[in-house]
Amino acid sequence: MKYSIGVDMGGTNTDMGLVTENGNIVQRRNIPTNAYTELEPYVRDMMREIESMVDGQSAIDGMAVQLEGIGIGAPNGNFYTGCVDNAPNLTIKGNLNFAKEIHRYRDVPVVLSNDANAAAYGEYVYGGARGMRHFIMFTLGTGVGSGIVVDGKLVHGSTGAAGELGHNILVPHGRRCSCGREGCLETYTSARGIVQTYCELAHVEPSPEITSKHIGELAHQGDPVALKTWETVADQLGLAMANSVTFSAPEAIFLMGGPAQVGEPLLKPLRAAFDKYLLNIYQGTCQIRMSELRANEVAILGAAALLKMKEQ
User: Fold this and answer.
1) Helix or strand run (H / E) with residue 20
2) Is the whole model's pTM more than 0.85, yes or no?
3) Which of 62, 167, 258, 312 makes a 20 to 30 Å CA pair with 144?
4) Does the structure show a pLDDT above 90 at 309?
5) Distances in whole angstroms, Cα of residue 75 to Cα of each of 11, 19, 185, 262, 272
6) Residue ranges of the domains in the chain?
């Protein structure tokens, strides 16, 4: 059996998995990303864990594992160069050439892209987008990421950084974004943006107890301010989604991430807003769907799926 490695490089932890061809994660490991300030020791320890997974599975299978390669989903990951370029949420700074560093340990294909692109391609290879040629993935979390697939291929653009729909400006001169601009979609529909909207509507100060999950629980209890918060977020996100349809005419838009798990308090008004803002020639051509990958597996599966792009 052939296997691939999926690596999800987060600001706090790096999660790794050994993945079968049909998308089963059979071994998992992790290391603390924020314990490192230099690339070389980070990759050394990452590869030690990868070799541990490979050796462990070889013992189970009774034969040497055939490793197809290593896929990495990372913030600011560049598909063309195999580098992570000055990611602000990493303690390892600079232009980080992962492909070159990994090849010091194993001569296997290394494919790297940003984490939202990886999630989108994971949906294409292993999830609900199987068989689709055109779709968009929105990932809602600390920020808002996106991945765009057109003609069965992930869109990277000329620089490798295409598809940052979370940084489309939704409200000119609006909320300050971590990217330095004002009014980005991320500032309104990320977990932090949802909390800010709730606090503004409830006329309360932010506190650690107020999270997007808590606001979701309040909405399910019928809390009017929480319900209004999700309606507001749905209207903003629905507008952004409708605008995204005009440039790639997707068959579906997938949602994933913690805030999306609230369910109908978001999804019902989101579908209504999407239909309201959608250009008439696209009416009825694009579904809004939830990711079909498990939340605790999507990042690893998405990273592993990036290797499939080498087959195109």
Assistant:
1) strand 13-20
2) yes
3) 312
4) no
5) 8, 21, 18, 25, 32
6) 2-120+297-311, 132-290
